[in-house]
Amino acid sequence: MSWWKEPLVGFDLETTGTDPAESRIVTAALVDTLGGHPERVTGWLVDPGVPIPPGATAIHGITDAEVRAGGRPAAEAVEEIAQALCSRLADGCPVVAFNAPFDLSLLDAELHRHGRPGLAERLGGPVGPVVDALVIDRSVDKYRKGSRTLQHVCTVYGVELADAHEAGSDALAAVRVAVALGERYPAQVGGLTPGELHDRQAAWYQDWAEGLQEWLRKAKDPEAVIDPRWPLH
After folding, report:
1. What domains, with CATH codes, occur in the chain?
2. Which end of the chain has less Cβ packing within 10 Å, N or C?
């Protein structure tokens, strides 16, 4: 069976900011799916322990008052999220994300912040298999003009995004984009095993990062550095 017809789990975070090393988790979701159809949604509302910047609230709608009133303590929630994610990976279920290095690196940073084992330590090896809908789309349709946000990519592949920047909705949309990519590009994507696709994405991401770094150094900042590692920085 093709991986995109099999169980997949979508993963998404909404956070206090855009730096995975420093930002904190505000909400998280894991969406267990089969063939792109949701079977179970597990969500967390997290009190990050720091103020949520107004700019972040403007994006995901979560306020300080909400997390203080109903959010789980960050250390407890981060541990639960990691356990749930790693249990799927340990069972061989691919984790699907949109821009995996952000979500996975941020979760890993949160684990270390709270003195908990990181993702690779829990798994006893590399984190995977991961399916990153952004990395795949950027590689198979390299020269398409326009934005590569989840909302715009959903439009390209005919995927409904019910509630942008709601973690469960974004996680499900990422899975459905991945399924559409697997179906549309059988030779490059859909016909690979999850392990083969994981390795190919790592190479694709490295090529993209090196190309972006070269362009930035020529056009804007001679010392620009883009981390080429995937799926974690």
Report:
1. 3-157+167-201 (3.30.420.10)
2. N
pTM for the full model? 0.96
pLDDT at residue 224 in the model: 97
Residue pair 171/42 in contact by the 8 Å Cβ criterion: no
Residue 141 predicted with pLDDT over 80: yes
Question: Is the pLDDT assigned to residue 1 strictly greater than 80?
Answer: no
List, for residues 106-135, the tens digit of each pLDDT value: 999 999 999 999 999 999 999 999 999 999
The answer to whether 187 and 180 are in contact (CB under 8 A) is no
Question: What tokens were used for 134?
Answer: 């952004």
Element (H, E) at 180: helix 167-184
**Stretch (H or E) spanning 57:** helix 54-60
Distance CA 223, CA 198 (A): 30
The token pair at 176 is 């459905």
Token pair in block for residue 233 = 């920085």
